[in-house]
Automatic annotation (TrEMBL), chains A, B, C, D:
DNA-binding region ranges: 35-54
PROSITE patterns reported in the protein's UniProt record: HTH_TETR_2
Short name of any one Pfam family annotated for the protein: TetR_C_46
Keyword Transcription: yes
Name by which UniProt lists this protein: TetR/AcrR family transcriptional regulator
HTH tetR-type domain segment(s): 12-72
Region of interest (Disordered), residue spans: 206-230
Source organism of this protein record: Streptomyces edwardsiae
Gene3D superfamilies linked to this entry: Tetracycline Repressor, domain 2
Keywords in alphabetical order: DNA-binding, Transcription, Transcription regulation
Length: 230, 230, 230, 230
DNA sequence: CATGAATGAGGGTTCATTCAT
DNA sequence: CATGAATGAACCCTCATTCAT
């Protein structure tokens, strides 16, 4: 198994092969369970060559994270074209996101599962990428508010929290779609848009769901599903 | 550190001590980095006894997952009392969830981070628990629809997706709250309720955000935040 | 080969076996060329046990140095009994030294060759032992001066230099005796006594060999072998 | 750093550059810790060329030993000019020896430390050179005896031992001088001459320090510093 | 049951050494 | 000859796991 053993390739090519193998192995086995032996074999090279090019397991993992993070951000940015209205941009950004994570499940596992579980150094690496996406979504939300000519009193802090929640929900859905068979990209994106867009609209309109007092006891709460809307 | 070394305890108690130590070690060090030596020492027990009671590292980890999963589900179920209206049930269920994950960060790390990153066997174990919670939320959504006397055309698949998204968002928020200092349980729950409830209400009212055709091309869509309502 | 594989020995015994094997291997192969595998096999144990008891190759080497250094100093001290006159004490100290180094050639190689060639940490370890012996010899020289009622103007600094030279010569002779077949302990000791004792006496009497001017050119120097004596 | 990269040099020159780099690296890092990569880089040469010219690490090391040994012997021989009386010849030989070792510390480290600590093959190489120097010193001692017209009963074996001791002491002093700052060549040579010359003179005059019987027991020996003379 | 003794198996890392270009 | 690509063979170290007492 593994790539066909072709000899004497230029360094750049070999490095990509190694990163391919590493992402796959790290994504499936996990960072610690992945052995450099397995990665080297899967890449069709000897272990010393992996070390010659990528120095150490940590560096190799970091290189994987960087490559996958860059690719993911690029995919999302390429998906959401700036000319469109905000909701359409969000839609196509989500579509691109789900498409990319579905096409690169190991890369996504490396970013979302492995990198966050094995040391702050790696976690920081993905946190940087995530922050970029969150910022992107934040701008989208603000743009949507401008589009709707409604900018009542949404403090920047709250917008950031909403973007966090949206991104978090998207990440969870990506995991779910990757694990559950038969879920299409459009379904995931549509679910999330439906789930989130109205909530955003309500918030911007100043309508909120008010939590009850802390330990309410038996009271006749009459809040229904339609209550926040009206 | 570690439990005080007391002799001759009944097996059930000893096992709980071991699981306590294991959950803590697995949660903090990670599955692979946790050593049986450390767990045994933290439990105040000799290593052979750990093997006598729990067979292997894998079995020990599985036992940890099962115990923590059961506890989490129980906490959520206990939180949401059946008599209340659906949104209040969801609110108290979320509150219970965030409270539990905040009080048992190592258990939560075991379930949400470690179990999903180290082999399908463990992942399946948490998937079962998660399915239980998702089903619980699904029933809540359906009950909410009944409460509102509006059950137009919500296909089961879509409800499942919504429940997934809600649970996923809750999980993300739990992680975020566990990592970010100064975030209270009420804040997390309120953020999520605000974010989600309106979307759910809109969906049940038949209002949805309609995705564009697949490769949209340059079209002059002027949908703003209110557009999905129309 | 190696020790007969006896199982379940108390730790102290096993440790000595390991140190025996380590001293032998380090002495013959050298620190870097010695492999932990070989040492473990020679000791009749598995490699992990060596690590369990002695932590690392460095620690193992340090333990070897300490054990051999302590043994050597003890042997020399035991040899030179305090009641005798200084020259006799020196004689028996030298005899003990040569006897010990001849009986433990690997230990001597560890101390004199390996420890000095592989890192300052190890070198410092033997330097401490050597300083102890040099101090011992220094005291012997001073005692000899007292015995002979001649304490003219021998500055402490010079005595230290002489002790250094004497110890250095003894070390070299030990190497030589270990490498050249047919050299007895008595021969080595006698050679060194004859070589050194008169020089010491002359120095204490204030007689020195005076070096010529720096670049003398062709001059009729008439210093013979007897000149310093007179 | 390293030699300036100049192209197309004759083989002999290239080889010397490699040997220079090798001696320096071996002397500072030690035989095993020195890597062929480092040597090649320091020599300003590609690694395959090193192998083309010098075959292997072992051969390269042997070549270093031979070159440095030859240079050292030549320096000593050149120092001691045959016309002078024996003590002056010894003096100038020692001076040359200390001068050379001080000027080529890496070469000296290779000969005296590295070659003796890494396998019998290398040790034999330096042993041959050392034998040459010892023989040279032996001849000097015999010449001195002739000069003094006193050749009583000096057995060849004993002369050899004396030469060994003298050379060994010189070697120790060279190490000491190389490690201790502020020690001049003249000081080293003077120390050794003072230390040794009287002993030699006494021996040639037939005066020796007589060792006691093997297991002496409690006897009232009152030998002081002057006793061997009597 | 608790303890100390003990190990098989494997993981990360390095290095001398060799070809093809 | 110089260079970059490539590797076989170790080496140090660790850990889950098991017995004998």
């Amino acid at each position: 198994m593994g790539a066909v053993k072709t000899k004497r390739m230029p360094r750049a090519v070999r490095e990509q092969q190694m990163l391919d193998a590493a992402v796959r192995t790290f994504g499936q086995r996990g960072y610690m369970a992945a052995s450099m032996d397995e990665i080297a074999e899967l890449a069709g090279v000897s272990k010393p060559l992996v070390y010659l090019y990528l120095n150490s397991k940590e560096d190799l993992f970091t290189a994987c994270i960087r490559r996958e993070a860059t690719a993911l951000v690029a995919a999302v940015r390429a998906g959401a074209r700036p000319g469109l209205p905000a909701d359409r941009q969000l839609w196509s950004g989500l579509t691109a996101f789900f498409t990319h994570t579905a096409r690169h499940p190991d890369g996504w596992a490396v970013l979302h599962l492995q990198a966050r579980t094995h040391g702050v150094v790696f976690a920081a690496e993905v946190a940087a990428m995530r922050a970029e996406i969150v910022e992107f979504v934040t701008q989208l939300i603000l743009a949507a508010a401008r589009d709707a000519h409604r900018d009542p009193d949404l403090p920047e802090r709250e917008v950031a929290g909403l973007a966090e929640a949206l991104v978090g929900a998207a990440e969870s859905l990506a995991d779910w779609a990757n694990t559950t068979p038969g879920v299409t990209v459009r379904q995931s994106a549509a679910t999330l848009m439906n789930f989130a867009w109205a909530g955003l609209g309500d918030l911007m309109a100043g309508r909120r769901w008010t939590p009850p007092d802390d330990e309410p006891g038996p009271e006749t709460a009459q809040s229904g599903l339609t209550s926040p809307v009206t």
